[in-house]
Amino acid sequence: MGSNVKFLGAFVTGVVVGVAVGVLMAPDSGKKTRKKLLDESKKLKDQFSDSISKTLDSVKSSYNKKLDEYAHTGKSELESVKDRLKM
Q: Which CA distances in Å does 70 have to 64, 74, 76, 77?
């Protein structure tokens, strides 16, 4: 999971820097530039929110799978101990 977080951080940083440089280098008036910055920041927020949501869903899914595996293993071990005690 650590590599996913690093990748996500690098991706977001790259997008922010790219958008900022692109907007600030554009030959538009201040009003147009501010509007572009606002629009791009809203797009970035939405993309980041979607990305975080997908990452959290993936983490939840992995967590639930591991929890189910441990529960199944625990039940199997318990049954095994019960069987040994009956002998």
A: 10, 6, 10, 10
